[in-house]
Amino acid sequence: MRSFTLALSLSPMTVRKGKRLAVSIQEHMAIDVCPGPIRPIRQISAYFPRLSPTSSVSEPASPNPAGPPTSLAPGLVGGATGGGGGGSGLLSPGTARGGGGTFSAMSSMDTSIEIDSCDSDDSTALGTLAFDLLYERATSSLHCTILRAKGLKPMDFNGLADPYVKLHLLPGACKANKLKTKIVRNTLNPVWNETLTYFGISEEDMYRKTLRVSVCDEDKLTHNEFIGESRVALRRVKPDQTKHLNICLEHPPPLSSPSAMSAALRGISCYLREWENEQLTSLEERGRLLLCLQYLPPSGEGDHQGEAKDRARGGLCVGVKRCAHLAAMDVNGFSDPYVKTYLKPDLQKKSKHKTAVIKKTLNPEFNEEFFYEISFTELSTKTLEVTVWDYDLGKSNDFIGGVSLGCHSQGETLQHWIDCLKNKGTKVERWHTLTNELPGSTLPE
Q: What is the pLDDT of residue 188?
């Protein structure tokens, strides 16, 4: 700026051979204001250092090899090393003395700024979460007991949070396997002691699925905020043994997509990739059904006190317990499921039984029983057909899935039917995977 001011003051008075020489302001700015190449500007934090809690001002300053060079510009070095140019000391936070020399405490404390900063995501603790996992092989159920969390990240203006825990089974439909704890208000160290249970979990699921545990903050006026998550491979859980976990919450893993793609395209590509993997690996496309079969022999063949008169001749008792992870058939992401049972062949069409409709759920619990009065000899020639439907008002109901049990079945369904016939008077429960197509089930009702 000194050269610029000097040029302005002298240019109007410049005279060459008795003539007044006029030089425009643009020429002076182009010639005089740019004395050399552009130098890097030091950060303002260098002039206002923050001392580390473990250091003191009286300690000798250590060299900072990663710091900027001691000389800033050719015009400013003279002010630091020689006489004249005393104003250059204002532009340099430290001076170099005697070749190697030592730096001032200001420049030596630059490395402590990043350590003490609370704005960095790397140094921000999201908290820890303690929970237990127990897989019961006999009931095909996974119990997750959410115990407590400690040191959660504050999410509200009061420095606290309203945390709750969500569970998801991956891969799988989000709403079909989402479980949620209660909300604990105004705390960073919540205690839940709440057990969430997944039904219809096979040993194959335990080998190939992952449990996603996420902690969120509930907000009434705005959308709920995500605090942190952790993912546990269920293959680490041994059957009938409780596994205690105390994990550190983490940020969600980044999407493995090209950086040039926009956020919307990254989301679509991730969804398509997960959908393709689900189609290839998923064994439960439509959901699962828990059935209980029991053949009651005639009262003359066994002691059945308290049985109803219509069951005196003996027959098959079918118990529809519950369904799990059903396919969503409505636009809201849920279904209104109910179950129908048939004992075929049924020429007179009198074997139809139907449960109540459970509204807006993908994991309904029915606990209903139906009785078919039939002899043991006739039962060996029959086939039990169980179908699950989505109730729709004013239009035809949607078929979700079904299963067929009989002597002509295969796999788990055949084994369930044989166990029922072999163990008269004993209830035999088993989970079955619903199939997308079942002969005779998809006909209009």
A: 93
Report the alpha-carbon distance of residue 200 to residue 169 in Å, rounded. Answer: 12
pTM: 0.58
Ranges for all domains in the chain classified under CATH 2.60.40.150: 126-248, 288-433
Of the candidates 424, 431, 346, 419, the residue with the CA atom closest to the CA atom of residue 381: 346
> Mind listing the pLDDT tens digit for each residue in 300-358?
654 545 555 666 678 899 999 999 989 888 888 889 999 999 998 877 778 889 999 99
- pLDDT of 21: 57
Region 288-433: CATH code: 2.60.40.150
Name the residue with tokens 């997308």.
436
Question: Contact 169/220 with Cβ under 8 angstroms?
Answer: no
pLDDT tens digits, 382-404: 899 999 999 988 888 899 999 99
Exposed / middle / buried, residue 252 (Cβ in 10 Å: 0-12, 13-18, 19+) = exposed
Task: Answer whether 145's CB lies under 8 Å from 131's CB.
Answer: yes
**Topology of the domain covering 126-248:** Immunoglobulin-like (2.60.40)
Asked if residues 257 and 244 have their Cβ atoms less than 8 Å apart, the reply is no
Q: How far apart are CA 57 and CA 443, in angstroms?
A: 86
Q: Can you tell me which residue has the tokens 């409780």? A: 242
Contacts of 428 (CB under 8 A, 6+ apart): 292, 293, 294, 416, 419, 420
